[in-house]
Amino acid sequence: MRKIAVIGSTGSIGTQTLDVVRQHPDQFVVEGLAAGSNIDLFVQQVNAFRPKKASIGNKQLAEQVAPLLPPGVELYYGEEGLIEVAAGTEADFVLSAIVGSRGLPPTLAAIAEGKTIGLANKETLVTAGHIVTELAKQKGVALLPVDSEHSAIFQCLNGESRDDVEQITLTASGGSFRHLSREQLGNVTLEDALKHPNWSMGAKLTIDSATMVNKGLEVIEAHWLFGLPYDKINVLLHPESIIHSFVEYRDGSVIAQLGTPDMRIPIQYAMTYPARFSSASKRLSLAEVGKLHFQEMDYERFPCLRLAYECGKIGGTATTVFNAANEAAVARFMKREISFLRIETIIETVLSRHIPQKQADLETIQAADRWAREMAASL
Ligand SMILES: NC(=O)C1=CN([C@@H]2O[C@H](COP(=O)(O)OP(=O)(O)OC[C@H]3O[C@@H](n4cnc5c(N)ncnc54)[C@H](OP(=O)(O)O)[C@@H]3O)[C@@H](O)[C@H]2O)C=CC1
Ligand SMILES: CC(=O)[C@@H](O)[C@H](O)COP(=O)(O)O
Ligand SMILES: [Mn+2]
């Protein structure tokens, strides 16, 4: 029996994690669940999985849900609740499936307690990759990738020597607006941005995919997860999202991981690693797919990807600010306060006003995160 806790249980990754648990009821027990504001689903989940500890977004929501929960469940709320669920149960595996850099404190708390991390929340590594990976190393904790590209790279590296890796390539679908020129991006709507061509995901990530910020975050995530320099991390446009990513070795061999675009596959792999369990996910038929397409990335068309590489190479608070400015700008786009293209100009402007600190401790990182959000909200 694997004991698990899920931070962000009501989201796209969280619900698919619980689907995996439902498919293998004899293999997993849920010790903790944490959600934000979707109280109906949270109450259903807590009643179905009966975790020892559960947490919801704030005190008011906690008062609303408390009478609807089964007896014996300890209920928490807010950031303290996230930390309690991540670090204060008997779970040995924590799936970090919350969105945004608010995932950093509970993920660090879980690592500090020696729990294996299934990492979907890429913002944690972009915000404080040096702190997270250093703590994981000290505690001997595995950070198992859930993000589809990183799960692919992780699988392609299996049993190989890191010294033999020439480069890795993360594939990018191109997002909702991949067929549009920059001129055509001027009038796109929120509804259009939310239509990802291949994946069904949370709103923030779907917009990040359209701006190519997501691939930028993933390049930085790959740097920290696999310890590779940025000049060994490439991005390739691949509209079908069938090849999830690949590794090129020094003998010229290329090892790729393929599959249908279904996040339950990488989620389950992280949950069962190093074992592989059966899965009901649709099988890939290359004969049915017929053709796969690839194209070099156009950094003029997708300037946020260029910015992400620049920030990654600087390190320290540069990536913290890149991420936080993006989170704040995307939140404004979702409230229809700003246009789609304004997301990238806000990120650029906030970065241009930031003096990065390279050896940043947690306090400095959190201050930079707050500063970038405030700046992005004011522009
Ligand atoms: N979806 C996908 O296919 C993939 C996602 N990821 C990464 O996984 C993470 C989650 O993405 P996704 O599942 O799409 O996002 P969703 O928006 O679907 O879900 C986000 C989750 O975070 C919770 N949450 C948000 N704010 C708070 C808060 N203040 N306190 C507590 N919980 C909160 C939400 O709760 P509630 O809904 O109750 O408010 C929800 O459970 C992101 O970092 C994303 O980049 C990576 C690869 C693929
Ligand atoms: C499913 C997943 O891992 C997402 O992060 C995905 O990468 C989004 O796809 P694109 O960013 O390539 O559009
Ligand atoms: Mn991804």
From TrEMBL:
SUPFAM superfamilies: 1-deoxy-D-xylulose-5-phosphate reductoisomerase, C-terminal domain, Glyceraldehyde-3-phosphate dehydrogenase-like, C-terminal domain, NAD(P)-binding Rossmann-fold domains. Belongs to the DXR family. It catalyses: 2-C-methyl-D-erythritol 4-phosphate + NADP(+) = 1-deoxy-D-xylulose 5-phosphate + NADPH + H(+). Its EC number is 1.1.1.267. NADPH binds at residues 10-13, 36, 38, 121, 123, 202. Residues 4-129 form the 1-deoxy-D-xylulose 5-phosphate reductoisomerase N-terminal domain. The keyword Oxidoreductase applies. 1-deoxy-D-xylulose 5-phosphate binds at residues 122, 148-149, 173, 196, 209, 214-215, 218. Mn(2+) binds at residues 147, 149, 218. Pathway: Isoprenoid biosynthesis; isopentenyl diphosphate biosynthesis via DXP pathway; isopentenyl diphosphate from 1-deoxy-D-xylulose 5-phosphate: step 1/6. It is an enzyme of class 1 (oxidoreductase). Keywords: Isoprene biosynthesis, Magnesium, Manganese, Metal-binding, NADP, Oxidoreductase. This is 1-deoxy-D-xylulose 5-phosphate reductoisomerase. Catalyzes the NADPH-dependent rearrangement and reduction of 1-deoxy-D-xylulose-5-phosphate (DXP) to 2-C-methyl-D-erythritol 4-phosphate (MEP). Its cofactor is Mg(2+); Mn(2+). Residues 143-226 form the 1-deoxy-D-xylulose 5-phosphate reductoisomerase C-terminal domain. Gene3D superfamilies: 1.10.1740.10, NAD(P)-binding Rossmann-like Domain. It comes from the Bacteria. Residues 258-374 form the DXP reductoisomerase C-terminal domain.
